[in-house]
## 1
Amino acid sequence: MLDGSLMRDVLEHHGNDIVEQQRIQLLEGKGSDGEDLRPYYTEDIKPRGYFRTRESAQRYAAWKETLSYPYSVKRNSDAPNLYVTGVFHSEIGVEFGAEAVGIVPDTAYATRIMNKYGRNSFGLSLDKWGVIFDEKGAKDELIEKMRQMIWQ
């Protein structure tokens, strides 16, 4: 009988790949649903937001376009990528549960950021899972494990 532990065993071998794809997805300014992270910089205005004015948010977004990033990606310049120096990106990890895989914060700082953008924003979109299974080999590993179980 096949169960979730088979999938978890395969994915545990790809923990680093999962975190890498999460970082790339964040640099693209995308959430787990494949949509832009919100609030946009120009929506994140005080009194509850971060920026004092829409203009200051626009200047910040323009400045972010001048930074160097560890991966070359395209994104909506108004969508946050949660990267300035890479601290937040380095403070996320992956957790394997009995029936789920989750991106988790490793520090209080990362927890605050994840809470602001909503925990549902974190996790891989379908295209990033495709990278894990198709390009990183998880699909072949899963098929091989299933073959072994069936023909034992």
## 2
Amino acid sequence: MDINNLNENEVRTLIEAEKNLTNELEYQEIVNQIQQTLILSSHTYRTSVEDEKRKIIYQFQVHSTPIATRFSVGLMFIDNRIHLIRLDFGDDLRHTNNYGTDNEIVVLGSHAHVYSPAGKYISKNVIPISSIEEFKNIKR
């Protein structure tokens, strides 16, 4: 499987595999990595845990102020910095899909990035969290 060129089925298969892990990281290893990587920067707590065997980074961010209800959780491939999936939660979030085209649409609120690059200023489309059955009621 070429992680630089996944199709929709491969992306869904990988996400499903993450939901049903058979090779879990050891608890103490996770705690150690959180303790070593947890930082507070611009009112945001950030931490990540690397699964070196599978080359995936588990990322977590909590914005502590001024909006305590905004946070992100994501899975990103280490080698190419592509998010397999990243969930961004917050009622006041605003994301533009199809930026700069006739089909441009603004997605308000919590949303998911699926198989998208990590760069903030790279155009990418998102899916509203409310359209994902498992997450439609998550607010905080």
## 3
Amino acid sequence: MFESFLVREGSLQNVEKDGFIVGFKFDVRNCDYRGCFLSLHTGYYIEVDGEVFPVELQKFEINGKPPRSFDEIAKCVWEHWDFDDWATVYVQKPGGLSKGKHRLGIYQGVMAQYGWMPHDQEWIDNPPSPLEIRGKQTGIYYYDLEVE
């Protein structure tokens, strides 16, 4: 159900800095119907055309603030991401993506907001991979997007 709302159609594009293409970006929504505090958001499993891009290569832009790493996002305990607000995910990839169609696989890592679980302190100290968090997504969602 949420897969039809997670990634904005037409948002995949390369990112340029100082005259060089340094990666790509795309827009996302929160897959939890009520949003979340940013500190619960641990990043994404991102796969493009079979190549996986770990959280360490990702930055996240929301609420009018510049892109931040997920280490920085983990400290944003009072900042909220509402369900219907678009955010932008930036991925470092020298040279970016070629023009044309690409297959994007994505899984959003958002820790549960429903009380304290025995593993929570470990997850706060050492955030798990997004695929280890069972949130509102039922699996990796795939999108066919185009870089123009």
